Protein 1
Amino acid sequence: MMALAEVKRNEWWEWTKAIAIALIIAITIRTFIFAPIVVDGTSMVPTLKDRERLIINKAIYYLTTPKRGDIIVFHSPENNDWIKRVIGLPGDQLEIVDGVLYINGEPVEEPYLNGMVTEDFDLVQVPENMLFVMGDNRYNSKDSRNPYVGPIPMESVVGKAQFVFWPASNMRIVQ
């Protein structure tokens, strides 16, 4: 029969292994797959509201590239993470005329703006390996229209917004 001390040592070792494995799994998920983020500001209203908490999918862009309309989190020129909508892809020509967004000469409906008008801007072409991003609250958004920000490098993308989890009354999948 095993001595009581040896049984306790084995039990302690099993608990230590279980906790270590759980920590490794949690760190791996947080680092490479999903992460929480807090919306800071009103640049994405009406789609996302200030202080909402959401989950971003960090793994999706290992398998694919951002698409027009995706809401992404990226490292900003100010060395923090911003959340904006992808409007233009590499090579796209964009402009807003009389409040209407044109991509490659074609007008684009933007139902997520809920009727908000967008200021016009002149024709720009999105460089290779870059994305043109804008907030949904166009009058209150530092985004690619600003020369300081400009188009963002693909490698600065952290992930795609997937799910609002707080406040609980606003819980939803991000469209």
Note: The helical segments are 4-33, 60-63.
Protein 2
Amino acid sequence: SGTILLSAIPQAAFCYMSTILIPSAGKCFILLNQKSYILLGVLSLSYWWFLAALITKLKREIDERKQADIALKEGEARLQEALAAGQVIAFTWSPATGLSERSQNTVQILGLARGQDANKPGNDFLARVHPDDRAAFRAHVYGVGPASPSYSTKFRFVRPDGQEVWLEETAKAEFDASGRVVRLKGLTRD
């Protein structure tokens, strides 16, 4: 049970193990006339010190991980605020699956209904590109390759309410060993 406590709550494990080991070591040192008791006392105290050091290390690592998580969440929040302020959508798109992942401000910039998920497969970005610009946009997206890994283009986008907006998109492709596009990463700006 001490080991279970050690992994879950280091302070509780330390207290639990201290209540077992320290009194045992004390009893062993009181009976000084027998060498085996002294050895047991030394072993109990050394085990206690080992556990104390281990618990201290675990607590430090847990605290560092919590701080890293907080810093990551704060960084993500700052990024989303900057993207929203600049009217910019950050995205990744996988040609293999056809799925994209877009920043949180996509709903506002593309005029999607509240609560509508911009990353769902049914929200086909290419289908909303203005028909007159669709072929050129498609050529840019599917024209990336190891020799030309990025593109930049401007096009009209038709929002669900029928309003047309001009968007500028810049993206760069990542490739696998055979030169096939694994994903596109980029920014779309209103």
Note: The chain is about 50% helix and 20% strand.
Protein 3
Amino acid sequence: MRKIADQADEQLVDATGYSLTDLGIDPLTFVEWMLVDFDYKLDGAYDNGDGTGTVYADVTLRDSMAFATTFMEDAQAAGDLQSLDEAGAKVLLGELYQAAMDKTTAMTTDYVSLEVVKNGDSWQVDEDSWGDELDYLFGL
């Protein structure tokens, strides 16, 4: 959750110049919202015979693209943010971000594949594969 929160915070800084914290939103609270009703169903796991494998799953989660669209449309409809001082802009963007969270309840289903590696008697998810799938699932 911390990794997703950090990425969400970084993405907002890139888009607006402000972090979630700057807008009065706890990044972990945002991630918790994203994971409401998260579900998955394994679709297969395959051993490649060389200490690596692949796990496939269908996942259901909040639609991050619908959220982003809602936030951007609401921010554009709010008018010229440039006319506000920095404190006012942060407050307004924070309110719009929270409102977009409250309004966006759409779920989406995606398909993921995770590369795994055998470590002793257990399998572990490859970190690069995990990072790629987080980026894909959460739009980060």
Note: The CA atoms of residues 12 and 18 lie 6 Å apart.
